[in-house]
Write a structure and sequence with these properties.
Elements: H1 3-22, H2 24-49, H3 54-64, H4 84-96, E1 101-104, H5 113-118, E2 123-128, H6 131-141, E3 146-150, E4 163-166, H7 175-188, E5 192-198, E6 232-235, E7 245-251, H8 252-267
Parallel strand pairs: 1-2, 1-4, 2-3, 4-5
Antiparallel strand pairs: 5-7, 6-7
Helix pairs in contact: 1-2, 7-8
């Protein structure tokens, strides 16, 4: 787990700006809860690094409520305000590409996506590696067009669907696991993949991690080399915020071509 190494300088810079702007007392009051979370988080990350199973790692993250988000066990990016722009943009994509059945994997706790499903005629399949979360989602939300399955996307097989929607997942997977998941997508025959990319974000990106940790991923850059000819894109951030995160749609053929480019790069 190497998050601390890559986050230390940016966090120190944020702290310095806060001290200059508001003074040391105010900076301490605001910074202490985050510092306490980071210390606890680093201890837990080291415990996760000793956990051999990827499923066990993500299950522990869920059981610990690792991200300490108030709205959703899936993390701070899964709040209703954080997903407002995305929720507004998805219906147009569904219509344009004839999406009738969507695989949402990982689906998390279904906190915000339930609003999208309720306003559509989609057949929805939510999948996640965390079995207790799938069991809870099934008990609370399953109906005649909404179902949940326990699934490791790096092993498959993926259920049949018109779209694999994969938000904020590859940020937490090792490079090898990302490629395993992409190969499972190709094997599934699903026509489209919509997933997250932090395209213009500053800071280290695309370095390898242990699955369960976090780093920024730019799918347009090596080693992934996804096509810049995105079929559909939606800015993925809360209204009024400046962000470089977006959800991008690619076809299965485009993913096959990207995997071929990546293979050629690796063998060069």
């Amino acid at each position: 787990m190497n998050r601390l190494k890559h986050d230390l300088i940016p966090n120190l810079q944020r702290l310095a700006r806060l001290i200059r702007r508001e003074g040391p007392v105010s900076a301490w009051r605001k910074g202490w809860p985050y510092l306490k979370w980071r210390v606890t988080g680093e201890i837990r990350l080291r415990k996760l690094a000793r956990t051999g199973s990827v499923e066990d790692r993500f299950t522990k993250i869920y059981q610990w409520n690792f991200w300490q988000a108030k709205e959703s066990a899936s993390g701070p990016g899964s709040g209703l305000l954080d997903t407002e722009t995305l929720r507004q943009g998805l219906p147009a994509m569904f219509d344009k590409f004839g999406i009738r059945t969507m695989l949402d994997a990982p689906c998390g706790d279904f906190h915000w996506m339930k609003l999208v499903v309720a306003k559509s005629t989609l057949v929805y399949i939510g999948a996640d590696i965390v079995r207790p979360m799938i069991e809870k989602n099934t008990a609370q939300y399953a109906d005649d067009r909404t179902s949940f399955v326990h699934l490791d996307i790096t092993k498959g097989p993926l259920p049949k669907a018109d779209l694999w929607f994969c938000r904020d997942c590859f940020f937490h997977l090792s490079i090898a696991d990302i490629f395993r998941a992409l190969n499972c997508f190709v094997e599934s025959g699903i026509p489209y993949l919509m997933t997250s990319s932090l395209t213009g974000s500053a800071g280290p990106k695309n370095h390898d991690i242990l699955s369960g940790d976090f780093r920024q991923v730019d799918l347009f850059a090596a080693p992934f080399l996804f096509s810049p000819d995105v079929l559909f894109r939606i800015d993925d951030f809360a209204p009024g915020e400046v962000s470089t995160r977006e959800m991008c749609l690619w076809s299965r053929d485009q993913i096959i071509a990207a995997l071929a480019r990546s293979k050629m790069l690796a063998s060069a």
